[in-house]
Backbone:
């Protein structure tokens, strides 16, 4: 009796590994609008200088230019100024005075979540500052380690699926092709469209706020083809 032809089994292996966030990225903007270009520019410049002073104290550098292990902020950045002017019209279509606006965005990466809460509380009280929210991340070293762990788990998942199918027919599957479909690190983002909404996501304290770090998920998906004799 002739042997049955080889069986091809194609499955998707998946893995999701969760870790508590190791970094909190505070995102905010400095904005001002008014009838005086000089005042608008001064508002944004002065506020940016205040923010820079706050963050510089929290982001010291060692002699090698890198942040020491106990630095609350590992790095921060600010974008260049964006300026705009426009003329509004009244209900009769007549031109009003020209208005001017200026803005800049900044973000700071915090290692110390207590300091993150304190700074967030401070920014809420500052004029011309709009807090967008906090992104939660892992360090690059952790992501690299999780990538290896997740790929192995995804392959084990694919092998088990192939064995389930082949076992019913009394066959033994052998992997012949592996393609990585996706490998991503994701976390939920607290959106701070309004201050009241953002406050709802925080726990008030006497000197600031406590931000609960969220889980960051590392997900891997692979497509594997097996031959089963």
Residues:
């Amino acid at each position: 009796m002739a042997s049955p032809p080889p069986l091809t089994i194609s499955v998707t292996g998946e893995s999701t590994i969760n870790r508590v966030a190791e970094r909190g990225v505070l995102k905010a903007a400095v904005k001002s609008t008014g009838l005086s270009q000089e005042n608008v520019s001064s508002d944004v410049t002065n506020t940016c200088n205040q923010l820079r002073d706050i963050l510089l104290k929290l982001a010291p550098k060692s002699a090698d230019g890198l942040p020491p292990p106990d630095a609350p902020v590992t790095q921060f950045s600010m974008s260049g100024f964006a300026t705009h002017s426009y003329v509004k019209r009244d209900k009769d279509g007549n031109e009003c005075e020209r208005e001017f606006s200026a803005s800049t965005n900044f973000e700071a990466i915090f290692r110390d979540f207590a300091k993150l809460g304190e700074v967030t509380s401070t920014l809420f009280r500052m004029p011309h500052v709009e807090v967008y929210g906090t992104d939660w991340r892992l360090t690059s070293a952790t992501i690299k380690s999780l990538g290896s762990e997740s790929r192995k788990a995804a392959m084990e998942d694919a092998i088990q699926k192939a064995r389930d199918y082949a076992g019913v027919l009394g066959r033994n599957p052998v992997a012949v092709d592996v393609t990585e479909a996706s490998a991503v690190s994701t976390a939920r983002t607290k959106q701070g469209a309004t201050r009241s909404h953002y406050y709802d996501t925080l726990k008030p304290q006497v000197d600031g706020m406590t931000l609960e770090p969220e889980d960051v998920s590392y997900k891997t998906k692979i497509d594997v083809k097996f031959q089963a004799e």
Remarks:
- Helices lie at 37-58, 113-125, 140-168, 195-200.
